[in-house]
Amino acid sequence: MKLDRLLAITMILINQRRVQAQELADMFDVSVRTIYRDIDSLNQAGIPIITYQGQNGGIGLIEGYRMDKNVLTRDELGAIKLALKSLSTSYQDAHASAVLEKLKGLSNEQQTLESIFIDFSPWGGNSVLKEKVTMLKKAIESHFCVQFFYSNSLGKESNREVEPHTIVLKGQSWYLYAFCQQKEQFRLFKIARMKDVSILKKEFVRKEVQIEDSPWDKEWYHPKRTTALTLSFKSSDLALMEEMFGVENIITSDNNQPVVTVEMPEDEGMYRFLFSFIDRIEVIKPEHVRQKLKNMLQNMVDLYTEKE
């Protein structure tokens, strides 16, 4: 990530008098041009970095400059460490490791056990997923297209070539938000369903995307993708359902049965969600959803019925 790299470069320049641009480029696996863009960003942020010409030249901080250690409080340093350590559970990032080492030097305090640690990796680990996330992150930073085979929720496989923009952690799963060249629009790809991922030697120009607005949410809940569900449940489960769907969305039917109407994207995830509450929630409508749940139940009965 660029922020990690900028912070690491700053710490390196504080601890070293001068460093070559090529040395920084090799360290962070980016181009020299990218390093000079980073230097411009740091200068604009108020850190006086200059370039020295000649045999002993290089990049360094202006003479006499020192970063005030009070720029970041102890709690702020802790928050940065927590974020970087947590991210390292999902992908390999030498930049983050370098930043953590520099932050230790800034704090000058004995390391203590963190009160909170966030582990994004699945139980038992998943080295293949970690490798894919690491590869996709590299493609995003270098602005290279990516090719892979993708299997959708119905099991249909297709070959995709995309322009990767952002890696997204959503609902405990990792996704790639990318511009799909086949569909000519942005799509959200579940990384676990991607196989034979490869980075192409084909550069792309990043499109303007307001990531902070979570555009994938807007696409996910587009009216063309969603289905209105009317669900009923037992009164004994009222507290659970209020927490799940919101108190304001629950009403009482004519027969005093609590009912809720919600809109959800009709995909495999929706049916898995409903199936997880199969003995506590009844789908009143639409009828085709009721029928599919019946078929799923019958398949389960068949699976567990002894063959005579």
TrEMBL record:
UniProtKB keywords: Transcription, Transcription regulation
InterPro entries listed in its UniProt record: CBASS_pafABC_assoc_protein, DeoR_HTH, HTH_11, PafC-like, WCX_dom, WH-like_DNA-bd_sf, WH_DNA-bd_sf, WYL_dom
Membrane-spanning parts: none
Domain of life: Bacteria
Pfam families on file: HTH_11 (PF08279), WCX (PF25583), WYL (PF13280)
Occurrences of domain HTH deoR-type (ranges): 2-57
PANTHER family from the UniProt entry: PTHR34580, WYL DOMAIN-CONTAINING PROTEIN (PTHR34580:SF8)
Protein's recorded name: YafY family transcriptional regulator
Species name: Heyndrickxia vini
High-level lineage: Bacteria, Bacillati, Bacillota, Bacilli, Bacillales
